[in-house]
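User: Quick one: structure for sequence A, then sequence B.

Assistant: Sequence A:
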Amino acid sequence: MNEAPGSEATLGEARVNQESGSQTAQQQDSGDPAGSETPAEQSPVGQAPGDGSIAARHSFGATAGRSALALFAAIAAWLVPGLGHLLLGRWGRALVFFAAVGGLAVTGYLLRGNVFPPHSGDPFGTLGFLADAGTGVFYYFSRMFEAAGPDVSRAAGDYGTRFIAAAGVVNMLAVLDVIEIATGRRS
């Protein structure tokens, strides 16, 4: 037969090819007929015998718990950069994201970059606000750093605006990373 190695699964003592459903030579040589198993032993590979309702309810509870953890960790990661990773036990990533987002945001504020207000009649102003608000708690500290107001007449102020927006984008990427880790899609 043209069977790919490793495509067989064990079913009781019999090895069955998952693609064709045929028994392998090992079972045929042992003289064990295919019909000697009871119906309970002939359940499909990967499923427990029975209706599976208990397993389905347990799986739903685990999924709901993971999504609640993911939501909580994502909100925490947005508010304080690195906090979501810290809650998930990723100390190194937490420190890196806090330092990266904090460093970019504070540098942008010190360069007197423009912090966009929440309400803007301009679509680009709204996008700027969303990028700035992505820095979480650093957005609310911006008033402390911007006592003199933004200075975009010089190149440094323009660079500062870009640094603040970059900090927000990096923090949003950190939030997505936290969601991936918390839901188990990434280790």
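Sequence B:
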Amino acid sequence: MKKLLLLGIISTVFITSLSSIALGEEAGIGVRVILASHQEKALDARLQDIQKNLDTLNYSSYQLLQERSFRLAQGQSGQLPLTGNKELYVKLLQEQGGTAEIAVEILQGGKGIFKTTAKLKKGGTLLIGGPKHEEGVLILAIAAQGP
């Protein structure tokens, strides 16, 4: 009986461990596509939480064009279409201790034109200067979101 109980405990621990590995840790990733320009001094009210980050850039106007949130498991990607036949992919490489390691890739017509990795603490934001758009440039603000 003791051997059967021990085997049951070992099996439960093993199955639980495999489930954790298969599911991986999840992280919330938020992506905002922002038009930055020198047109007029203006900040879209929906960007006030990252105003300090944007103030480090050399633009006077910031307008939020689109916003998307993803809940990603380890190894999973989120995709967001951009202008000019471009697509943004954000992949969660790992989440550990409140820090999300991500891979960011932009494709144009199926070919990679930009690729980087970054580690973001929950609440942290990565700004990526993008291509020209209308009278300015696109800025991608990628943030690790809380639970």
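Strands lie at 26-37, 42-43, 61-73, 77-82, 86-96, 99-108, 111-121, 125-133, 136-145. Helices lie at 2-23, 51-54.

User: Thanks, that's what I needed.
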